[in-house]
Each structure stands twice: as structure tokens, then as C-alpha cells.
Q: What sequence folds into this?
């Protein structure tokens, strides 16, 4: 196992820049998830760590050694591909032992490693099969098995679950987490699915437009998003945003309604700012107190209910566990829990610790 | 899917018509090759002669230079097919996987070579090969055939490589293979259908090539079989029976060759490589 360190890493294809200088330190045994929308550079970053893409500028270190110019085969890392990339002309056992055969590991040692990995993944009945005779979930397991037999310095995952159906994805997610707890392997996991990111990561690296937006623990990103991008990307249903102008004791929204807030920093007065509030922090008021909002759409998820409202002409999503709203009329009353308001400045970056009740008061 | 009886019948009839159209010349070849000479002109047009004979075959095999032609053709076509497939695999892989500065021009140049009528090139090629001592030699023919077949075969192989996910060799490289090892152990086995198709295509192209064989070769020693067939045409007559018998014999290796590779031609080995 190893630590990985990335210093001012840049990638450009000709004049088209994909990564604009990424710095990241990954500790030995840490599970780091790179998350972001497609095209944010997360896969490119992963492929650069794997050695499948060249480095334009900056440095990648594995265990303190610079690996920029090292061929993928000499980096001693394993990767699980989105497509699984199983060798179709080899059996499951051959797929799993291929890396060991390339390293000229003794046959009995390799066989033992394959047996151990296949036991762990429940693949023993399939060892003699070819990949095409396996289901999607089984192929996924073989791809994982191929990675773990090697005991590499680090595991890289490139959206490994996105080809599975929802049920299987949930199951494999838990298995990956279990496997990591078991092996304590340094892992970098790329996904666009923020649920995967939240559930798996020790630390999340949120990326957008080739720039790291925020690095932190999952709850850190959820509770204290560093900017509008992270606030909107993490969480489902997504955070509500209300644009307005900062005034002395609050925010004047677009529709001229006033949202009282604690202290608004002086330098923001008169500036365009954005208020954010998560759907679960919008409170529906049964007694009709609060701001009147029109109920447009109800989406019951079974676990809870997502409501789409219009508040003073602005769209607002609400998440509630209270099924009574299903009987509600077209008008409901809402209040925004002030201690859960997030404030973002004109450049989209977070202002103060507004998610912290003490700071908001 | 349910379809009406009438469309099914029409469809089958159309297929049947095509098959008859395609195979009839072969049948006629066979028919003439077993027709005794005295019946060939006296019986008029019949589907099958009243008497059959194998004397043409016997004559072709025993008293003509056909076995030499045959051997030459096998050598020329076989080596051309192997050389071209080898080169086209490497260049097709390069075109499929790498981006390099002159790629566009190389592709354009290769396309350009396919645009000239070969007749135009016969004289210059003769002029080039003659001082090198490569006229009237099988080596010369192999070189010329290879040169003309490599571009098309490269495009053919490229399309097969394009069909193999890049992830596979990347996975192999991460597993510890060099690019060449990944090519040899992962990509090539999956390209067997493509290689078979390319081998078959080049082999038949070289097998039936007449123009260059005729121009670059004189004398029977280095003649290939298409040139040899012309020896059955003399100034005053055409020995159709022997010519057709030779034609039938010449079909055998081509048929045998396709029998060998057809298993790869129809096989989709990449199934199961990635989600599908």
C-alpha cells in the first residue's frame, strides 16, 4: 500500500486544457472519491495516475517517488474499468491470474491468490467460464478480483458501478466498502454519482471544469459546501438556490421579498448573492404560518416525498417525511430554517459558516 | 416476428435467384470440364453432356505445366497473404490506436494508391524491377502484390482493431504488460476473425491476379496459374475442356483456404469483453 501525492498537475490536449493544476495528497490506506459531472477531468486525473495519459505539467508521486514517466506496468497499481475490460478469450481464472503470469509468479502461488480472491468475491463456481457467460454483476466481481489478486500499491476505480442496475449497484457499493475495510488499500474512485461518493469516501474531491472545487469528508461537503457548484452537485434532490441582493439584515430576493438573516458581512452590501437551502430544511407549516407557496408537483419516493413548489414565482423543492402533505391543497405555507441557510457571494464561493447555528444566530 | 406467406416466398425466391445467378458459371465450368471434346460442339446447349470424361483433368495434371503454375500460385499467394496480413496488422493497429503528426497524410497517401488504374503502373513497375532482377521471378510478384494490397488490408485491419475496446489493452498494460505484449496476448487473439478475413481477401486477390503476372513473367517456370490458363488458348483454337479442368483444380485451394478460415470469419470473439 502506498501514499499518492499530486502536485500542480496539468493536462492539455494541444491548446485545450482539461486539468488546470490539481494538488492532492492521498494518505496510505485512504479511500478518496473523485466526483463531478462528465467532462470535469476526474477520469483524466485517474488515467494520469494510472499512467494511461501523459502528464503535461506537474508531478505524480507514488510512495514519494516521481512516476510521471513510468510505464503503467511499472507503477504497480490496479484499475477497475467501467466496461470491466475483461479479456474475453480467457476464463475467469485466467483473467484474474494474468497479471501474476506476466510477473512470472510461481504457478501455485498464483493459483492460491486466485482461489483466495474468488472465495472473497463468491466467484468459485465461475472460474472456468468465459466472461461472456457471466452476468453484469459477476463480470464486475471478476474485474475486482483481477485487481485484488495482485495486492497492488493502490486501487483505481473508474466508474465501476455505472453499468449495473440500481439494486446491484447498491449491493456492490457495500461490497467495495467492505473490501476496503478489509484490505485497507489506498483507493481512488471516480464517479459522477454523488450517492456513491458520499457512501464510500473517506474524503471526497469535488471537481468541476478541471479544477478541484472542494476536498473534504462527505458530511463536510454536504453541510458546508465551499461554493455553489459543490452545493448544487452534492445532495439529491439538489439544494434550492434563491438569488438576491445583500442588505443590512438579510437578503432582498428577486421578487422583492425579504429574507431575514443574521449578520450579513459588510463588504457584501448591495452585491448579488445566492441563498441556498436544502429541500429537507424547508419546513412545511401545517398551521398556515410562513410564506405561501403553490404546490406544483408531488413526487412520492416511498421513503419520503419530494414537493415542487413555487414561492413568490421562484421554484423551490421540499423534501418531507410527512405524508399528510399528500392531502394538502394547492397552497401550502413554508418557512426556511434560518440556521440551515447557506450564503454564497457574487463569485459563488461560500460566505461564512452559515450552516453552523452559532454563526447564523 | 410474424410475416405473411407471400413475402416469405418472394424473399426465398429472390435468394434462390441470386444463388443460381452466382453459381451458374461455376456449374458451367464443371460441365465443360467433364465434356468430351467431340461432344462439346456437336451436342448444342445442354445442361449436362450425354457422356462424361475425366480425360481433361488427367491431361492437365500429366502433360501440361499446370502443376508448376499451381505451385507458383500457392507460393506467391500464400506469401503475399502472410506478408500483407503481418504488415497490415501492425499498421492497422497504429492507425487505430495512436495519433501521430503525419497520420492524416499517410492515410491520404494510402488512399491515393488505390485510385490509379493498375495498367498505368505496369510499365514503371517493370522499369523498376528489371534492373533489380525481379522480373520473371516469384519474389518480384510477391513484392508487387504486397505493395498493392497493404493499403486496403490496413484499412480492413484498422476497422477490426477499432472494434476492440481500448480498455482491454489498457487493462493489460496496468496488469503489467508492455504495449506489444498486450497487442500480442490480448488484441491479436481477439482480431483472429479480422486476420482471417484479411488473409482470405489478399490470398484470393493474389490468386486471381493476371495483369502483373502476365507482364512481369515470361516463360512457364515462374508463371502463376491465371497466366497458365492462357496457355490453353493457342493461335488457332481454345482447348476449353482442359482450360475448365484447370480452372476447377485452381478453385480447390481457394475453397480449402476459406474452409479453414470460415470459422473465424463468422465468430464474434469479442462478445463479453465489455458490457453488451
A:
Amino acid at each position: 500500500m502506498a501514499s499518492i501525492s499530486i502536485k500542480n498537475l496539468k493536462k492539455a490536449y494541444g491548446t485545450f486544457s482539461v486539468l488546470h493544476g490539481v494538488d492532492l495528497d492521498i494518505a496510505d490506506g485512504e479511500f478518496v472519491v473523485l466526483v463531478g459531472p462528465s467532462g470535469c477531468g476526474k477520469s483524466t486525473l485517474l488515467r494520469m495516475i494510472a499512467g494511461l495519459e501523459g502528464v503535461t505539467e506537474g508531478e505524480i508521486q507514488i510512495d514519494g517517488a516521481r512516476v510521471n514517466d513510468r510505464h503503467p506496468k511499472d507503477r504497480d497499481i490496479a484499475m477497475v474499468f467501467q466496461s470491466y475490460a475483461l479479456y474475453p478469450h480467457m476464463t475467469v481464472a485466467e483473467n484474474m491470474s494474468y497479471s501474476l503470469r506476466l510477473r512470472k509468479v510461481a504457478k501455485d502461488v498464483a493459483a492460491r491468490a486466485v482461489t483466495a480472491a474468488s472465495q472473497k468475491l463468491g466467484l468459485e463456481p465461475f472460474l472456468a467460464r468465459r466472461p461472456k457467460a457471466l452476468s453484469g454483476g459477476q463480470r464486475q466481481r471478476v474485474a475486482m478480483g483481477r485487481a485484488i489478486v495482485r495486492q497492488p500499491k493502490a486501487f483505481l476505480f473508474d466508474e465501476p458501478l455505472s453499468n449495473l442496475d440500481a439494486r446491484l449497484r447498491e449491493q456492490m457499493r457495500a461490497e467495495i466498502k467492505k473490501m476496503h475495510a478489509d484490505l485497507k488499500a489506498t483507493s481512488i474512485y471516480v464517479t459522477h454519482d454523488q450517492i456513491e461518493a458520499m457512501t464510500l469516501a473517506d474524503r471526497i474531491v469535488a471537481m468541476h471544469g478541471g479544477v478541484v472545487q472542494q476536498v473534504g469528508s462527505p458530511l463536510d461537503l454536504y453541510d458546508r459546501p465551499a461554493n455553489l457548484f459543490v452545493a448544487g452537485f452534492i445532495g439529491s434532490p439538489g439544494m434550492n438556490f434563491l438569488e438576491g441582493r445583500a442588505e443590512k439584515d438579510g437578503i432582498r430576493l428577486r421578487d422583492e421579498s425579504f429574507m431575514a438573516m443574521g449578520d450579513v458581512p459588510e463588504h457584501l452590501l448591495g452585491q448579488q448573492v445566492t441563498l441556498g437551502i436544502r429541500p429537507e430544511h424547508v419546513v412545511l407549516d401545517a398551521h398556515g404560518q410562513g410564506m405561501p407557496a403553490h404546490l406544483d408537483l408531488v413526487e412520492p419516493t416511498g421513503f419520503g416525498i419530494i414537493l415542487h413548489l413555487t414561492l413568490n414565482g421562484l421554484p423551490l423543492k421540499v423534501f418531507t417525511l410527512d405524508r399528510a402533505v399528500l392531502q394538502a391543497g394547492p397552497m401550502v405555507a413554508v418557512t426556511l430554517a434560518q440556521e440551515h441557510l447557506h450564503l454564497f457571494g457574487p463569485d459563488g464561493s461560500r460566505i461564512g459558516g452559515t450552516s453552523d447555528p452559532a454563526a447564523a444566530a | 416476428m410474424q410475416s405473411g406467406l407471400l413475402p416469405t416466398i418472394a424473399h426465398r425466391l429472390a435468394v434462390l435467384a441470386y444463388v443460381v445467378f452466382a453459381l451458374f458459371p461455376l456449374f458451367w465450368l464443371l460441365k465443360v470440364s467433364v465434356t468430351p471434346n467431340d461432344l462439346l460442339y456437336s451436342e448444342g446447349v445442354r445442361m449436362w453432356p450425354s457422356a462424361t470424361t475425366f480425360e481433361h483433368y488427367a491431361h492437365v495434371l500429366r502433360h501440361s505445366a499446370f502443376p508448376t503454375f499451381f505451385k507458383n500460385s500457392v507460393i506467391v499467394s500464400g506469401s503475399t497473404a502472410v506478408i500483407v496480413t503481418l504488415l497490415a496488422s501492425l499498421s492497422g493497429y497504429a492507425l487505430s490506436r495512436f495519433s501521430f503528426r503525419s497520420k492524416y497524410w499517410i492515410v491520404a497517401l494510402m488512399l491515393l494508391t488505390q485510385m490509379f488504374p493498375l495498367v498505368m503502373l505496369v510499365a514503371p513497375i517493370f522499369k523498376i524491377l528489371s534492373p533489380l532482377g525481379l522480373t520473371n521471378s516469384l519474389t518480384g510478384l510477391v513484392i508487387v502484390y504486397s505493395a498493392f494490397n497493404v493499403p486496403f488490408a490496413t484499412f480492413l485491419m484498422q476497422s477490426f482493431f477499432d472494434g476492440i475496446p481500448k480498455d482491454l489493452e489498457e487493462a493489460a498494460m496496468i496488469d503489467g504488460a508492455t504495449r506489444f505484449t498486450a497487442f500480442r496476448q490480448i488484441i491479436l487473439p481477439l482480431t483472429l476473425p479480422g486476420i482471417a478475413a484479411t488473409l482470405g481477401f489478399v490470398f484470393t486477390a493474389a490468386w486471381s491476379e493476371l495483369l502483373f503476372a502476365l507482364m512481369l513473367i515470361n516463360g512457364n517456370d515462374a508463371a502463376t496459374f491465371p497466366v497458365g490458363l492462357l496457355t490453353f488458348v493457342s493461335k488457332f483454337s481454345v482447348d476449353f475442356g482442359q482450360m475448365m479442368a484447370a480452372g476447377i483444380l485452381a478453385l480447390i485451394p481457394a475453397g480449402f483456404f476459406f474452409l479453414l478460415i470460415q470459422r473465424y470469419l463468422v465468430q464474434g470473439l469479442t462478445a463479453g469483453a465489455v458490457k453488451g
About this structure: Residues 232 and 239 of chain B are 6 Å apart (CA to CA). Chain B has two domains: 1-53, 56-265. The longest helix of chain B spans residues 66-97. Chain B touches chain A at residues 165, 167-168, 170-178, 181, 186, 189-190, 269-275 (CB under 8 Å).
